[in-house]
TrEMBL record:
Any Pfam family matching the protein: LSDAT_euk
Cellular compartment(s): Membrane
Domain TRPM SLOG: 130-390
Membrane topology: Multi-pass membrane protein
Name of protein: TRPM SLOG domain-containing protein
Keywords per UniProt: Ion channel, Ion transport, Membrane, Transmembrane, Transmembrane helix, Transport
Taxonomic source organism: Larinioides sclopetarius
GO molecular-function term, one example from the UniProt record: ligand-gated calcium channel activity
Amino acid sequence: MCDCLCIDSGKDSDAENGGNITPDTEKLWRWNRYSSMTEIHPYVFQFLTENFTRKECTIFEPAPQQPNCVCGGTFKEHRSRAVFESVLPGTVDRHKVLPANEGPRIKSYPTNAYGKIEFQMDGFGLLKPAKYIRLADDNCLDSLVSLMQDYWKMNEPDPPQFIISVIGNTSSFVDDHEWKETFGDNLVKAILTANAWLFTGGLNYGLVKVVGDAVRKRQYLVSTKDRMIHAVRCIGVSKWGCVENSDLLINTDPKEMHYSRYKVKPHHKLESGRAYLNTGHTHFLLVDDGTKRICKGTEAFRVELMHKISATKEEEGLAIPSILLVLGGDLDSIDEILLCLQKEIPVLLCCGSGDVADIIAMAISCCNMTGSRCERLAAEEDKDLIRNLLNSYIKKHAKNAIPMLDAKVKDIYKCCKKKHLIHVFELNGNESLDLHILATVIKHKRGATLRDQLLLAVHWNRPDVAKKLFPDCGSWPLEIIEEAMTAALITNKPAFVRLLLKRGIVMRDYLTVGLLRTLYNECISENEAAQVVLKDLTHKERYFNLRDISNFLSFLMRKHRHDIYQRDITCKRGIESTGISGEHFEQPFRELFIWAIIVLRTRIILLERNTKTIANGCCSYRNLLET
């Protein structure tokens, strides 16, 4: 059951009042996944053609000593090739074929590729189609965000809590299957914890293939009110000119939504500057700068998009934090890391992954910080060490880049000046990758207070993240701990309850009459049978007080007598009228024990904290049997 429209034009779309969409037509669009084309609503067509363009090199300009154009395209791939049909590629005199008044080589036209991709791959069943669009590298990011939110419905059922972009390579882990499995597990675990979006390069080779395959193996569908969606949103930001068989993605009719059957060779490597799209992705942004077979140029676009989404709503962004994860990496990775840091996007380096990530991690460890500035490395020998490491990398992997050595070393120094945004994760350490990802996101969440950070960790049910962020017990203010405890009790987070008890919360001071009343009213709906009985006994639909709870307990256990319970009286809207909301209990753990049994929070039961452990245990067992 998959929605087959790339851009939803049904009842959730702004277009619902603008055209003749019949129920039968809408049903056909959503269910006929095997049709090669689907009619596109005029409103959507107008939005696409007005906001997204493609770029084409219109004049063949031969590259020095190369048969192809300087754009990377072949002679036949140029729109104006008829002018040069009598000229052999590679022998063209560029001064003759490029008169001064010819105008720009790269010209913009309305986009001609948008729709859905159905991946066809040997050994795999049918996958839910991925949505895609071809767009120019200078198109408006506001329009792109609108496409992702309003048409692709990527914020449904809930918006992401952060975005993670993964770059680098796997040269150090080519044959390490165990590492790939562990990496995939931890990455997807972090994404699912916070409903994050994952950005990659989108092409089926290197690290992107490892990431995409990890997502595909762990992917599943989630049902919303009218369709099925991917649980993990994996967005490939790919170079259009580097996509193998990109002609299969071009719309034969611009007014129809294209549905492409795209076959991927499973063991294909990057050859001749082209690669297949990876099957683990759910969306593709195919960025077009007019070049072909030149797999560079999407870095700045991806960083700008992350920055746009991370911007506050006052800055017309979505206020969704972003993070860059780096494994290994090449010289281009240095540029992208620096771009992210300049945009205040935090970077997580995987130390032990080799190449550029290790070099920058080494530079960070050698940094001599003075206040908030980092003007130089600690000593001249450290400078020489970093330079020698980078020089060795260039000689091994990119000999033609030796003239760039000094510039790249300076870029590493610039990265070190933003050391507060860089975090280093030891691949061979004891902590997990997902822990570091989530901790980095929380720490750099824009405008987040200590309270916000701790409550977010509670929401994610990650006490390990809270301990990493706040290792010192004394750094946890009591009022924040108490608020976090309330959230953990209501949302049934037993691990957090135990952690907060260890962090110094005193239950006798924490649990008041008003708070216990709130806990019952917030959670009683979890036990439908108990709620029905309570309503029958009290003739109320909601706003129960502790006297009501006492009557219910007497009915359930034949006897319950507690003076504070009997004195708690509220009016119809739950407003306390006896002035005892601030009173405390002599045995708060016993009251929480009873509450946990009634509202089915059995994992929160703290028998070891009760003075009458055996009696309470037998009582709870009887209650569970009767329930």
